[in-house]
Amino acid sequence: MPDFLGDPTVTLPVIFAALMGLSILIYVVLDGFDLGVGLLTPFGDAPQKDRMVASIGPFWDANETWLVMAVGLLLVAFPVAHGAILTALYLPVAVMLIGLILRGVAFEFRAKVPAPRKPLWNMAFFAGSLMTALSQGYMLGFYIMGLEHTLAAHLFSVLTGLALTAGFAFIGACWLILKTEGALQLSSIRWAQRALVGVVLGLGAVSLATPLVSQRIWERWFSVPEFFLLAPLPLMSLALVVALWLVLRRMHEMPDTLAWLPFAGASLLYILAFTGLAYSFYPFVVPDRMTIYDAAAAPESLLIILVGVLVVLPIIGGYSGLAYYIFRGKAEDLRYD
Questions:
Q1: Are 125 and 106 contacting, i.e. CB atoms less than 8 angstroms apart?
Q2: Whose CA is closest to 100, among 70, 127, 62?
Q3: Taking the CB of residue 18, how many other CB atoms lie within 10 A of it?
Q4: Pairing with 187, which of 89, 202, 214, 296 sits 20 to 30 Å away (CA)?
């Protein structure tokens, strides 16, 4: 048994892997909904587009900070793995960065250009959101497939790209249910119902493919007693999907004080899916090739970095929490004057 408490070569890699996983999870939930709102903008009319963008205006910058934190932790704590992963994912990472830049530029320009040019920047905002979502989903699928350049790996990565895009659209629609009212809220309920179908298909595809690409994961999922330890995750996910579907069908009849339910359910579904993936791949940081212990930096370096992380992480969390507290309630018109 590894000495988790007394051996820093074991303890510190686990701590940093947990912090990196937490940062990725927070990013996927928070930036997931604002990417999802961007994906849904073509379905709203001009006033609705403004209100949709206003619903994420105070938050989207802070949400992306968690991605920077996750990549930074990968770089400083697991430098060898950082090189291997980013080298294999060079092209989709470039597409993601272009999409994020396009979103940021379009977010500002759409509110400042003359009215006839505004639709162009609305489309740019949608295009940036779509590029980012598809590339992140592609990276997830390629990672699951072991970062191997095979036809099956690329086809599966395209599938996960589409599935994660549907997932972002779903949580984005749930966010709009929470932050808007009237006709836009009713439209968001319909968008969430349609996107939930894509979420179910995506979760099913990833769940079927993941054990097939790795004998180690197959044994972890289906051996005893691990099978019974893992079983609650898919069962809870299935129950949550059914509950979300029923809530969305009755959402228009519920009081607005319950408008938080779909977003909370969508966030919990993301947490369950992420927990399943983390369980499946631990202790590997590069699937079936490199563990967190093999890839970790020297314990002395990790200890110094940990001090900095313990200072920075609460600041980022506090800033994000303050923004959500100040701008709680329904979204208002986004103004620059």
A1: yes
A2: 127
A3: 12
A4: 202
pLDDT of 224 strictly over 60: yes
Reduce the DSSP state of residue 288 to 3 states and report it. Answer: coil
Q: Can you tell me whether residue 290 is helix, strand or coil? A: strand
0.90 surpassed by pTM? yes
HSE, CB side, 13 Å, CA atoms: give it for residue 28: 22
Q: What share of the chain is helix, strand, coil (3-state, %, to 5)?
A: 80, 0, 15
Could you give the CA distance from residue 57 to residue 41 in angstroms, rounded to a whole number? 14
Helix count (H) and strand count (E) of the chain? 14, 2
Which position has the token pair 């990417």? 35
| C-beta separation of 244 from 196 below 8 A | yes
Please say whether the beta carbons of 110 and 122 come within 8 A: yes
Strands 284-286 and 290-291: antiparallel
What DSSP assignment string belongs to 121-188?
Answer: HHHHHHHHHHHHHHHHHHHHHHHHTTS---HHHHHHHHHHHHHHHHHHHHHHHHHHHHH--HHHHHHH
Pairwise CA distance, residues 233 & 319, whole Å? 32
Which residues in 101-117 are b (16+ Cβ under 10 Å) and which e? ebbeebbeebbeeeeee
Half-sphere exposure of 156 (CA within 13 A, CB side): 24
- β-partners of residue 286 are 290
**Is the separation of the CB atoms in 285 and 81 below 8 Å?**
yes
Contact 171, 29 (CB under 8 A): yes
Is residue 78 within 8 Å of 303, Cβ to Cβ?
no
Condensed to tens digits (0 to 9), the pLDDT of residues 29-65 reads 999 999 999 999 999 888 899 999 999 988 888 888 8
**Which residues of the chain form beta strands (DSSP E)?**
284-286, 290-291
Query: What's the token pair of residue 46?
Result: 């001009």
pLDDT tens column, 268-308: 999 999 998 888 888 899 988 899 999 999 999 999 999 99
Distance, CA of 223 to CA of 218 (rounded, Å): 8
